[in-house]
Design goal:
The model has no long low-confidence stretch (mean pLDDT about 90). Helices cover about 30% and strands about 35% of the residues. The protein has about 190 residues and is of the alpha+beta class. The chain has two domains: about 110 residues, Roll (Archaeosine Trna-guanine Transglycosylase, Chain: A, domain 4), CATH 2.30.130.40; about 70 residues, LON domain-like fold (Orthogonal Bundle), CATH 1.10.4060.
Length: about 190
């Protein structure tokens, strides 16, 4: 499948929310197109380069995002909230004349064992629900699904105060349970 890429200095997880201010013409056009067509765009971490202008190198694993809210800010910029849907691996990438990156991707779906048992990661799930209750308006996660491994791992991944390369390492794990186990290890090691 071929999708437009939005290289950023952050990582988006499946189920995670990402507020963005859009000001570059190529990305305003991309957002208009995906909203009109009901499709999504790929969020990938910038490994070399900058968010504005040309991007030299991006992570090979990213997340398909869909616009779930949008509006215009007082300064005229487009404001959106994107929700992560599914992970992908970039197979090939090219840059259009306007600078927009397009990529052929393969999907990296999480294993189906997404339902968590009550004794799995109880402290992480409790901490997440507490954090979401405090961030309700800033981070509208919607109806909580604390028994869904993908939902829990996605929101924890978005909210963890860790550098982008650590988030990227989490995203690249084979499944949500592996991401949760790694988050639990990070939490235990302080």
């Amino acid at each position: 499948m071929r999708i437009a890429l939005f290289p950023l200095g952050t990582v988006l997880f499946p189920e995670g929310l990402l507020p963005l201010r859009i000001f570059e013409t190529r990305y305003v056009d991309m957002i208009r197109r995906v909203m009109r067509e009901g499709t999504g765009f790929g969020v990938v971490l910038i490994r070399a380069g900058a968010e504005v202008g040309a991007v030299d190198e991006v992570a090979q694993v990213g997340t398909l995002a869909r616009v779930v809210d949008f509006g215009q800010m007082p300064d005229g910029l487009l404001k959106i909230v994107a929700r992560g849907e599914r992970r992908f691996r970039v197979v090939a990438r090219d840059r259009q004349p306007d600078g927009l990156n397009l990529a052929d991707v393969e999907w990296l779906d999480d294993p189906v064992e997404a339902r968590l048992e009550p004794d799995e990661f109880p402290e992480l799930r409790s901490a997440l629900m507490d954090a979401l209750a405090q961030l309700d308006e800033e981070y509208p996660a919607g109806e909580g699904r604390p028994d869904d491994a993908v939902w829990v791992a996605g929101h924890l991944g978005q909210l963890l105060p860790v550098p982008a390369p650590v988030r990227q390492h989490l995203l690249e794990q084979a499944g949500a349970r592996q991401r949760l186990a790694l988050i639990e290890q990070m939490r235990a090691s302080g």
